[in-house]
Amino acid sequence: MKMYEATIIIPAYNEGKNIRDVIQRVRNVSSKYQIIVVDDGSQDRTAGLARQEKVKVITLEKNSGKAFACLTGSSQAGCEKIVFIDADLQLSPEEIPKFVSALDICELAIGVRDMKAIPLQRRLANILARKMVSHGSQQLHDVLCGFRAVRKSALKKMSLKQRRYEFESEMLLAALKNHMKIKEVSVTVSYESYKGMSVIDSLRVLLYILKNRTGK
Q1: How far apart are CA 111 and CA 133, in angstroms?
Q2: Tens digits of per-residue pLDDT, 142-173?
Q3: Strands 182-186 and 108-112
Q4: CATH of 6-212 among 3.90.1720.10, 3.30.1360.70, 3.90.550.10, 3.40.50.970
Q5: Which of 1, 44, 67, 99 has the fewest CB atoms lying closer than 10 Å?
Q6: pLDDT tens across 86-96, in order?
């Protein structure tokens, strides 16, 4: 039985044009990563193309949301270290090792992007979310980045319930509530083919944080 260093969870929705490239780049970084693709009810060939790469593919019958996809993948993770990276190539798989290493000294590692490189809508949402989430001495710089890593044991303690784009914020709030050690990891980002959260989704995330933030 092959021993893996970390499990890489790739949630994907209609990412047929990118999924094979993402998988290949993750594999090129290290052969010691278990790769799990969660096809979140795609209407294109995402699942089939991923299977061609000989990785574990979980197919959801309908689009159930990013959080649901990530947690479903995590339930099948064979490693204590879990890394989440989106399939749209906005973030670089070559930076995964930084997250794997970070988990040697923390329970949660979150990506920190250059705010100037982020579309205005998401930048504003992130600024507001950061002000609401930053807690005591733990001043965080990018609370909504989807590139992050968590120990499986810590993820279990978080008892996450949300299903969609609240995934990152719920995870962070749970980590703060449980006094877990959080480490920030600088990452590069490209929004050449931006298709992220809608304005409505951004507002939902902010409302969720406002309702559930701690220590205020």
Answers
A1: 15
A2: 888 899 999 999 999 999 987 776 888 889 88
A3: parallel
A4: 3.90.550.10
A5: 1
A6: 999 999 999 99
